[in-house]
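Ticket 4471: requesting a sanity check on a complex prediction with V47. Repro inputs:
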Amino acid sequence: MLSAIAKKVFAGKRITEKDALRLFETDDIFTLGALASHVAGKKNGVKAYFIRNRHINPTNICVNRCKFCAFSRSQGQEGAFELTIEEIIKKIGTGQNGRVRGQTASSKKSSGRQVAHHLSPITHHGISEVHIVGGLHPEWPFEHYLNMISAIKKHYPKLHIKAFTAVEIDYFSKISGRSLQDTLAALKKSGLGSMPGGGAEIFSEGIRNRLCPEKIPGARWLEVMEAAHRVGIRTNATMLYGHVESLSDRVDHLSRLRGLQDRTKGFQAFIPLAYHPKNTEIEGSYTSGIDDLKTMAASRIFLDNFDHIKAYWIMLGEKISQLALMFGADDIDGTIIEEKITHSAGALTGERLTAEQLVDLIQKAGKTAVERDSFYRTVRTFA
Ligand code: V47
Ligand code: SF4
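Returned structure tokens:
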């Protein structure tokens, strides 16, 4: 049944939206996996990437209060938190699994033989990237975010700072009265290295209004990302799936991402985010493993202009993430260390994995584990 699409995929031709819908609808997940693996293999060979990273959420206080978000709180509400810049600096210094200063991954025994070491971005605290996203705080001025980034850069000059979703950037632009370009350029000057892909949710207007009526429309999310790419900031892209959207909504979402990527080439990775229903205002259940794998594979095949597809183990679980490496994913994210957004919504995973555990997951999927930096340059290859 998928033979016409398979023909296109093996010929390296772009598939249509109609084809993508058929991929989402098929029950033939073995063919789907084979096609996605073919595309992934052409792009990344047998490599599967991970990074030593840490997540930090400066605040969960948010003026948007999206209905699917169990993480956010209103100001003054029980459970609301704000981290000071000093607290953020201290958290980063705690590092991976309490690893002590001066000890790097290569000085510890790992589960794979180290065969290459091209770059050395590992800082003394054991991570190479910090991932910072938070709520839209009603009182913090834009300068606070600039100070946050420059203070982190000052304390940890080698650390890559991946921070702020397109939703936050739009908010900074509004509260500061600066243009998008100025907002982004100021952050870049302070030390922002790249941007994560959150806040995309589902672009389809009807569904977006049900999920998050206060959030910027999909068109604005894309506009912010385009502006980021134009000022030289690479970003990721995401799609929240498994709530109230239809399969056509997913295809529409992917199509808008593919269209922007054709123009800017600024996206590094696409990350499908599996909806978690607990403590949210949207009814629903956890996504099935089959849906997770289908979504991964269909995305890999349709997004022919994206170099990387990430299986975010925090949301998918370790086992489905491992299988996703056979369904088109070439990246399983990283050590994470502390995760609040998914865990507020009933994540079934832990909050951290060691680099050794990530290597083991990847190797047992028959892939070559590659530790990467924030731009997918090889740090180490584990044979
Ligand atoms: O923007 C919120 C989503 C995102 C729920 O770019 C939920 O490398 C599931 O974007 N169930 C944040 N998802 C996470 C994110 C991300 C994660 C890892 C890597 C990268 C990257 C980006 O999480 C939010 C929102 O889309 N989210 N609530 C929920 N209940
Ligand atoms: Fe705020 Fe982001 Fe949560 Fe929406 S998803 S309520 S914008 S923190």
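Notes from triage: The first strand starts at residue 47 and ends at 51. Leaving this open until the requester confirms.
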